[in-house]
Specification:
The complex is a heterotrimer of chains A (about 180), B (about 240) and C (about 350).
Chain A lengths: L1 E9 L4 H14 L3 E6 L9 E9 L11 E6 L2 H7 L3 E10 L13 E5 L1 H7 L6 H13 L4 H12 L7 H14 L2
Parallel strand pairs in A: 1-4, 4-5, 5-6
Antiparallel strand pairs in A: 1-3, 2-3
Chain B lengths: L23 H14 L6 E5 L7 H4 L3 E4 L5 H11 L4 E7 H7 L1 H9 L5 E6 L29 H4 L5 H6 L4 E8 L3 H19 L4 E7 L3 H4 L3 H15 L3 E5 L2
Parallel strand pairs in B: 1-2, 1-3, 3-4, 4-6, 5-6
Antiparallel strand pairs in B: 5-7
Helix pairs in contact in B: 1-8, 4-5
Chain C lengths: L3 E4 H11 L4 E4 L7 H13 L2 E4 L3 H13 L4 E5 L1 H17 L3 E7 L15 H5 L10 E3 L4 H18 L2 E7 H5 L1 E4 L27 E2 L6 H21 L3 E4 L6 E4 L2 H16 L4 E6 L1 E3 L3 H8 L6 E6 L5 H9 L5 E5 L8 H16 L1
Parallel strand pairs in C: 2-3, 2-4, 4-5, 5-7, 6-7, 11-12, 11-14, 14-15
Antiparallel strand pairs in C: 1-8, 6-13, 10-12
Classes of the chains: A alpha/beta (about 180), B alpha/beta (about 240), C alpha/beta (about 350).
Amino acid sequence: MTHQIIIAGFGGQGIMSMGQLLAYAGMLEDKNVSWLPSYGPEMRGGTANCNVIISDDMVASPIITKATAVIAMNKPSLDKFENAVSRGGLLLINSSLIDRKASRDDIEVCYIPANEIAEKLGNSRVANMVMLGSYIAKSNAVSPGSVINSLTKVLGSSKAHFIPINQKALSMGAEYVK
Amino acid sequence: MIKVFERPKSLTDKPFHYCPGCTHGIVHRLVAEVMDELNIRERTVGVAPVGCAVFAYEYFNCDMQEAAHGRAPAVATGIKRVLPDCVVFTYQGDGDLAAIGTAEIVHAATRGENITTVFINNAIYGMTGGQMAPTTLIGQVTATTPYGRDKDRAGYPVRMSEMLATLEGSAYIERVSVHDIKHITQAKKAVKKAFETQLAGKGFSMVEVLSTCPTNWGMTPAEALKWLETNMIPYYPLGVKKEVE
Amino acid sequence: MSKVLMKGNEAIAEAAIRAGCRYFFGYPITPQNEIPAYMAKRMPETGGCFIQAESEVSAINMVYGAAGAGARVMTSSSSPGISLKQEGISYMAAAELPCVIVNMVRGGPGLGGIQPAQSDYFQATKGGGHGDYHLVVLAPSTIQEAADLVIEGFDIADQYRNPVMILGDGILGQMMEPVEFRFSNRRELPPKTWATTGHTGERPRNIINSLIIDPQALEDHVNRIYQKYGHIMKNEVKVECCNCDNADIIVAAYGTTSRIVKSVIYLARQEGIDVGLIRPITLWPFPANEFSRWADRQHVKAFLTVEMSTGQMVEDVRLGVNGKKPVFFYGRTGGMVPEPSAILEEIKKVMRSVMK
């Protein structure tokens, strides 16, 4: 099984760290993983995106041309990557910031008001974790436990106090798409 | 019998290739005498330039590296960072240090790199046949300023010692001359002081030595010494430009 | 030692430190900036030294000085910066100084772009600077391989007293993969008796130098270096062959591009075409014999070289194949990473043309 995920949004939405957490969690489950960011001037205030591959086999190309899932955190990202979802694939839309519907009918689409859910938790910055929770629940690419474990590694001990709210955001996201 | 004069141990037996009347030989000897007196020869690594002193690695009787044109301060930086207990010096001419290697010398000084530079300023490119140097005086005739250096076309001669003295990282900068015995004695003191500055770990040290090039200046050695005194010293005033306690 | 998830650039830096590199001199340029930043942080922790030089020119000459003083030393840059370093690289090859130089290639010529490319192949493998010399050029395709090759690269550099280049690209530098720092095939290395470390009379005076005025002496020196290159060509070739045994067509690709080709092997099989891959891991010495060997096989109809350039490695592939089979080329330039579907189309085109 190979999961090929494109995550996209604007700088500051935690796009890169979402992808890294996912890759890290895959690694903790002894899967083959890769994380490839967009880089350069487009990162300065523009859209940021990363490609994450989690696979039982060796990862060949780290570049995703046909995604099993796209997570769109803002509208330009939806416009840019909607067509990258392979037929039968998954498209997760942050409906807090995206007012349009998906135009594809050959894929599964979920609308998640990630910012609103995050605000209910008291910190809009965990909107990315809400989306990640939804994605994991839909795809089973990795287990929520692995994501929590990688959170500890990625955040480090100085930011350990952020773990509970992130954990909560993950489960709220999962809950929403059940 | 008491020996009153001998070749410094810090010079090899190799005869110099320099032209008759060239002052490079004097400066080589001064550096070698200082290395002997400070008893540092065994832990010194020198860096030779590109220019007339390109073969300096054959003359100084210590471990030597030959650098690309202008890059001696960068090479010396690499050596000194690996071997902080070694004494590291560069020996560079005006083309090497003040033209192609300007960035390297400025940044070695500004980093306060704990190395010593001996800078030979004879206002001309010797090795390549007498072209204009960055330190060539206004009006001075060279192969590439056949009508004399014109400030409108070729700009002004650069005073490296004054420039480097403005940098926080430089610890000791002095300009000396070797046109007569008195000044040669002073020059040796300055070279010694520069090496002592390094031994004390104070930072970048440089001695600029006003020198002659009789061959490319088209003069006899005696005329060249006189020309240096009359023309170069007024534009390049001698003395200590920077000294950190 | 467990696996960690690291960016390629950071893994390369950490691998160098694990290999005993304690000196790094560099200058910022995208897309390799994580290497100097990582070194700036880690070197003081290891008792080593990091300097951000005033230019790439100075950086490589600091490398020259440190290597001449006997240290394990590294520098890294990307294409335009590597051009600036060529002077120093030529001097180091001539003075036989070991070091590791990383080039995270970006699109060129000129200032070009900052996206991944493979257009520095000629520069890396054919000399790059002036004079008769070669670098050992290692082209990793994964981050694990990059770490392994950096560690082995320092040994190769020390064994042969020659600069070694790691030729990557922006993708390899920026992406993250699991990596484990491991030491396999450690070599017995000769002591650096030639280094300028101070001359106390126990050995002859050491001189690090590339100036040899006497033509006969210069020729002797260059011939001796080329004898050394002969040993390298005999002993250090690394290549991966994948799915070649029954291949109709063999694709030649290195680095990131070879990974894309691996995806294509699977796609092509679905279309009934058996595609093999020869992936040179050492670009110099080039695995020419491997190409020659497969070109002799009846089932191989043609070769296709795929690069992120307008066709550089393809010249070496042609030399290896030596006219025995046709060699085709498909390439895109800086940042226009070839897509699997486009490569598949090329393969089909090649098949149609050789089946005629």
